[in-house]
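hey so i finally got around to running the thing on that chain from the lab meeting. sorry it took forever, my laptop kept dying and i had to restart like 3 times. anyway pasting the input first so we r on the same page abt which one it is
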Amino acid sequence: MRKENMDDLFREKYKRYSKLLFRIAFLHLGNTHDAEDVLQNVFIKLIYNAPTFKDDEHEKAWLIRVTQNHCKNVLKSSSHKTNCELNEEIAADNCADLSKAIDISIKIKALPATYKTAIFLYYYEDLTVEEVSKILHISRSAVKMRLKRGRELLKSELEEYKYE
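ok and heres what got predicted. didnt touch it at all, straight out
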């Protein structure tokens, strides 16, 4: 394939997936710099080491999985600092009240990784339980359980919004 075609293909994939993958990385890592580094590494892996994909959903699932794995590696590394930033764009995308959205975003970031990815994909990306199960390579019942447990953890943290 010619270089121009590769560049166009990369731009198209970056445009399609970068926002989603950045949000996932930011949700796991809590700061922009680490999330951008993960995003860069994921796209490098896509360019140089990607398998052949059956379809766009398979590619999307692979990219999400690679993003999660890179985030886990960053969190394990000794150089990672737990510097949690507020990212108003991410928080405000689905909520009208910015302060409430930021608070909810912080509470979601504090969830264990197992729950936060399922909650993010289901509530923020509007994926179905079936789609989340395919992306995370877990059963539908496991997705439902992660959503249930994540909601339970958030419920106690978000009592102040009970009557809104």
